[in-house]
């Protein structure tokens, strides 16, 4: 009987990607199959996130539950990976001695060796080093799960925003060589993948080695190469940083039709005073100018962002500037959270006089506005023709399928499941706060 892996992921898409790679290496090396039932698992892995305190706290409460599974069967192995592992290392084992393995985002490819070592020696195994890009050289061929896939193109971050732990937990920016990225995309395309999302903390810092030359490939050039891979018809990337959003990337929105009409460009705040304290490296005016030029290149763009609310000393005026920016930039989606002080980051030493209730009030005002902008964006799609990539059967209603627009909105419509994995055109007929409905057009235009 094959061994079973139970794997939980917290945090960002990078972590989702890393988790799928953990499952792949363990399947290749030890024949592990994933299970959703922890009671039948031999190996329990938790891929963690430390970007905010809440995410970090969840780790130890989850591990508390896992302790019982281990007492039920002491041969079970428990491993902790991701950013909390990277930050805490050995301290995790001191706090939760029933944990056997601790590994960081850059050492997940060493899981098979760590696992064998802990099984043989019955001792804890900890490896949270940053062995540069070795991780990607040691991963098995990707396994596609459906018609969309993530491909990590770079690791880490060298921006050191004053509030953020990522440069400390994932290390500095390192890009994968161009050929490796293209090979992975081609392997996915051969398995039926039609849409690729390029992943990294700052994908536009990508500078991939080109063969053995000293030349480097940037994100804009990478997009043109990927667009030429047969089968790939839509390309997205996330997350990019406003300070490094080059003219070439703006031009890509005009010149490359396979690039989706969607951009996630975190702004964090709308006031120059707060942006300066965060060390973001751009002003409000510079952000707005870039958005104006991107929209000129791609008028139907959907723009989403990240906001941190209640950064130390944030005043009502700073907050109003953030609210104004939502309207000025035409932001129609956002991840927004209250600032969470992270140990070891410069901002954690700042005095913060803003009461929590005030931060919560601001956050809920902002989230209401974003919701309204999202609804307005969806209403604006009513009656339009949209090309969607059909991803799956719709959750509600037999005979319905769900496809994603270039602007990253799901549309439910009547159609056969044989269209899953294909591009079709639909007319948007209904926009409710939660969903879009549509009607399939020209079944002959399937691609
Ligand atoms: N590279 C991206 C950028 O250009 O900002 C962001 C990557 S970061 C891991 C993801 C998001 O987490 C950030 O955009 C920020 O909004 C949020 N975040 C990071 N540190 C935070 C903190 N200490 N408190 C609250 N939110 C935080
Ligand atoms: Fe974090 Fe800023 Fe990098 S938010 S991931 S340090 S761009």
Give a brief description.
It contains 14 helices and 21 strands.
General description of the model:
With 447 residues, the protein is of the alpha/beta class. 36% of the residues lie in helices and 22% in strands. It contains 14 helices and 21 strands. A six-stranded parallel beta sheet has the order 2-1-3-4-5-6, sandwiched between helices. A hairpin with a 6-residue loop joins strand 11 (208-209) and strand 12. Helix 10 packs parallel to helix 12 and helix 13 (316-329) packs parallel to helix 14. It is globular and about 65 Å long. It starts with a strand and ends in a 6-residue tail after the last strand. The structure holds S-adenosylmethionine and FE3-S4 cluster. FE3-S4 cluster is lined by residues 157, 159-161, 164, 166-167, 201-202, 241.
